[in-house]
Amino acid sequence: MFARQMFRPANALRQQVRRYASEAPKSGGNGLLYTSIALAGVGGAYFYLRGGQAPTGQGGAAPPSAEAKKVPAKAAFTGGEQGFVSLLLESSEVINHNTKKLRFKLPEEDMESGLPVASAVITKYKGPNMEKPVIRPYTPTSDTDQKGYVEFVIKRYPNGPMSSHIHDMEPGQRLDIKGPIPKYPWSPNKHEHVAMIAGGTGITPMWQVANAIFKNPEDKTKVTLIFGNISEEDILLKREWERLENTYPQRFRAFYVLDNPPEQWQGGKGYVTKELLKTVLPEPKEGEKIKVFVCGPPGMYKAISGGKKSPTDQGELEGYLKELGYSKDQVYKF
């Protein structure tokens, strides 16, 4: 049970968010606040007042036993000279009008993916009329220590040969996958506060990092998510994010922004704006204590951080984050 109430104007909201960004995490207690805002053109905010003791579990994940730690699990993806691994599609689930969740079996039931956080894989497909194979990167959404399978959430694009092929696959068919493709090397408590700015399927690497943080009882990192989409049904992994909100209300907050919100929508409307970032992100003066991750379509990169030059070259920091005083070292573009 919770009560909803209108809160004070934006300056009061900003003070509250700044306290959240700078205070050390506390143990659970009564009256925990969850902030959700409606900015980007309409302004205002509301708070959810959550009562009761904060749960202490780790989202259903039990800590590994001492015996399990002694014997490393076999890895399906080992990188280096390993070629593509042919994985069988075990299941395909429709998420919304253009997105599916696909589960691929690893070669052996006791295998793990072997992918470090954060990393991706590349997929390969050559159709009967293609001169060259299509290769595309994807970030798994299953736990990195999940045994027996690896899972992806993939959006179908009208002119996307790989996404169309994957969506057309039936259980029992196979796909060539290779990895890992290293991204940002995460370690517990590497930063005190991580801010994630995502659009569309750019949410998948954010989930990989956040899931690793909150599964680990030793990792006390705070996480703020800003997630932009076209419509409410496009908010991918929403149940998973809500679980984190419910379990870690003092360490995780999510702010959703929609281009085409429903009539009763009380989150952000329009695009992710400079004012929204200024209000909810940790202060740039925090230095190495914070890290800002960005992942989304080209237009989002251009407005918020500037694009990458290549997979190995982050390029210069531009856009809203530069205007707000963040440094190139504080921002990572997936």
From TrEMBL:
<keyword id="KW-0560">Oxidoreductase</keyword>
<feature type="binding site">
    <location>
        <position position="138"/>
    </location>
    <ligand>
        <name>FAD</name>
    </ligand>
</feature>
<dbReference type="InterPro" id="IPR017927">
    <property type="entry name" value="FAD-bd_FR_type"/>
</dbReference>
<keyword id="KW-1133">Transmembrane helix</keyword>
<feature type="binding site">
    <location>
        <position position="136"/>
    </location>
    <ligand>
        <name>FAD</name>
    </ligand>
</feature>
<dbReference type="Pfam" id="PF00175">
    <property type="entry name" value="NAD_binding_1"/>
</dbReference>
<feature type="binding site">
    <location>
        <position position="163"/>
    </location>
    <ligand>
        <name>FAD</name>
    </ligand>
</feature>
<feature type="transmembrane region" description="Helical">
    <location>
        <begin position="31"/>
        <end position="49"/>
    </location>
</feature>
<dbReference type="GO" id="GO:0090524">
    <property type="term" value="F:cytochrome-b5 reductase activity, acting on NADH"/>
</dbReference>
<dbReference type="Pfam" id="PF00970">
    <property type="entry name" value="FAD_binding_6"/>
</dbReference>
<dbReference type="InterPro" id="IPR008333">
    <property type="entry name" value="Cbr1-like_FAD-bd_dom"/>
</dbReference>
<dbReference type="GO" id="GO:0005741">
    <property type="term" value="C:mitochondrial outer membrane"/>
</dbReference>
<comment type="similarity">
    <text>Belongs to the flavoprotein pyridine nucleotide cytochrome reductase family.</text>
</comment>
<protein>
    <recommendedName>
        <fullName>NADH-cytochrome b5 reductase</fullName>
        <ecNumber>1.6.2.2</ecNumber>
    </recommendedName>
</protein>
<comment type="function">
    <text>May mediate the reduction of outer membrane cytochrome b5.</text>
</comment>
<dbReference type="InterPro" id="IPR001709">
    <property type="entry name" value="Flavoprot_Pyr_Nucl_cyt_Rdtase"/>
</dbReference>
<dbReference type="InterPro" id="IPR001433">
    <property type="entry name" value="OxRdtase_FAD/NAD-bd"/>
</dbReference>
<feature type="binding site">
    <location>
        <position position="137"/>
    </location>
    <ligand>
        <name>FAD</name>
    </ligand>
</feature>
<keyword id="KW-0472">Membrane</keyword>
<keyword id="KW-0812">Transmembrane</keyword>
<feature type="binding site">
    <location>
        <position position="204"/>
    </location>
    <ligand>
        <name>FAD</name>
    </ligand>
</feature>
<keyword id="KW-0285">Flavoprotein</keyword>
<dbReference type="InterPro" id="IPR039261">
    <property type="entry name" value="FNR_nucleotide-bd"/>
</dbReference>
<keyword id="KW-0520">NAD</keyword>
<dbReference type="GO" id="GO:0006696">
    <property type="term" value="P:ergosterol biosynthetic process"/>
</dbReference>
<keyword id="KW-0496">Mitochondrion</keyword>
<keyword id="KW-1000">Mitochondrion outer membrane</keyword>
<feature type="binding site">
    <location>
        <position position="155"/>
    </location>
    <ligand>
        <name>FAD</name>
    </ligand>
</feature>
<keyword id="KW-0274">FAD</keyword>
<dbReference type="InterPro" id="IPR017938">
    <property type="entry name" value="Riboflavin_synthase-like_b-brl"/>
</dbReference>
<feature type="binding site">
    <location>
        <position position="153"/>
    </location>
    <ligand>
        <name>FAD</name>
    </ligand>
</feature>
<feature type="binding site">
    <location>
        <position position="162"/>
    </location>
    <ligand>
        <name>FAD</name>
    </ligand>
</feature>
<feature type="domain" description="FAD-binding FR-type">
    <location>
        <begin position="82"/>
        <end position="187"/>
    </location>
</feature>
<dbReference type="InterPro" id="IPR001834">
    <property type="entry name" value="CBR-like"/>
</dbReference>
